[in-house]
Design a protein that fits this description.
273 residues; mainly alpha; 15 helices; 81% helix; 0% strand
Amino acid sequence: MRTPIILGVILVLALSAVSEGQTTAADFFNLGLERGKAKDPEAAITDYTKAIELQPNMVAAYVNRSKARNDKGDFGGAIADTTKAIELGHPEIYLAYYHRGFARRKNQDLSGAISDFTKALELKPDHDLTLIGRASARVETADYDGAIEDYTKLLAVTNKSPRVYLWRGKVRWTRADYEEAVIDFSEAIKLAPDIQDAYWYRADSRRMLKDYPGAVADYSKSIELNPTNPDSYRNRAKAYRALKKSALAASDEKKAAELQKQLAIRRETSTTK
């Protein structure tokens, strides 16, 4: 709970230094750091720009400004900054490749993103954000084997995060490898029992494997955790149909239709606002 107070004190000191004329590149760089921590990317960009004006070869300022630009959605600017940082060189230049990869992925340059993430991982093999970024880009290019490889490495880096089991399971579900998907979703649930997506995807995997009782149990848990998802009722109805439980299936189909209608109304309302 003390972090916001400490951050506020540091920011005041940094502002005081600048107001008193201590306008070195390092002053502006440090101020940019604190403004970035304060979730103010616009101000951070301004400070990093001033640092670069005073010290044009400050690689860290280009790298950090690229992050702020990514946060702001200026992916073209982020690519330009990281490219400049890579040209200048730096002991931790893997961060420039990571941020450029992030920006390229957002710009739908998936091949360029994967290339940058791969270079970053050559320099820093255990960088978790880069593994996540490359895995995501590989999923988007239908390189499911590559994505599974990245998530498997990420499990070791993150000490078996339940979210990583979930992500790897989703890739396996996408390519219809349902038995392996069930294993991953089960591991995620074991580590985080309230992870709703894991129940939904395990339910769907079990349904595809014709384990209808298991599917019903998992859809029911998914509904308990998120009772507003029409797909959960719709797919549980399919499992009930397979089990010849017509009344329960009909009840779920009715509920799914009601929720779908409510969802459509909410979407229409939000669009017209």
